[in-house]
Amino acid sequence: MIDFILQYNATVMIDFSFQCDVTIMIDFSLHCDVTIMIDFSLQCDVTVMIDFSIQCVIPVMIDFSLQCDVTVMIDFSFQCVIPVMIDFSLQCDVTMIDFSFHCDVTMIDFSFQCDVTMIDFSFQCVIPVMIDFSLQCDVTMIDFSFQCDVTVMIN
């Protein structure tokens, strides 16, 4: 007679926590003369709340300039299936915002596709200094595509 008995009692607990506190100053300026195709694509599966709002108190001045000489085609497509809500929120107290975009392009193809449930994006800042964002580029084709199906919560 062969009697084989295996008993296994296991209790496993996995506790994963990630905390990150980052303080970053970004001064972004791009000057480029290119003749190639730039294809930027981001694909992500998320299920989020979109909470997007803009509230801005700017005591000094806003200088927004857009200069663009486009020879062929600008294709902007926004497709979004959002079953819950979109609420975008930007609160900012700044002294001066100078945003300038200057480009001579052949074709700009910008497409945004997303199927989301809820995205909560909020940005609050009190900036007493000057924000100067400038993008100058001479390109042949810029193809920017953003696809997302979100399952996380961004707050």
Concise account of the structure shown:
Helices cover 0% and strands 60% of the residues. The protein has strands at 29-33, 37-44, 54-57, 61-81, 89-115, 122-149.
Description:
Strands 1, 2, 3, 4, 5 and 6 form a six-stranded parallel β-sheet that branches. With 155 residues, the chain is mainly β. The chain is built from no helices and six strands. The protein has strands at 29-33, 37-44, 54-57, 61-81, 89-115, 122-149. The protein has one domain (29-149). Helix content is 0%, strand content 60%.
Separate helix tally: 0
Give the end-to-end Cα distance, rounded to a whole number of Å: 64 Å
Principal-axis shape equals extended
Q: What string, H for helix and E for strand, traces the elements in order?
A: EEEEEE
Compute the average pLDDT: 52
* Major sheet characteristics: 6 strands, parallel
**Tally of strands:** 6
The fraction of residues assigned to DSSP E strands is: over 45%
Please bin the fraction of helical residues: under 10%
SS-based structural class? mainly beta
> Would you identify the regions where 5 or more consecutive residues have pLDDT less than 50?
21-48
Give the number of domains: 1
Radius of gyration: 24 Å
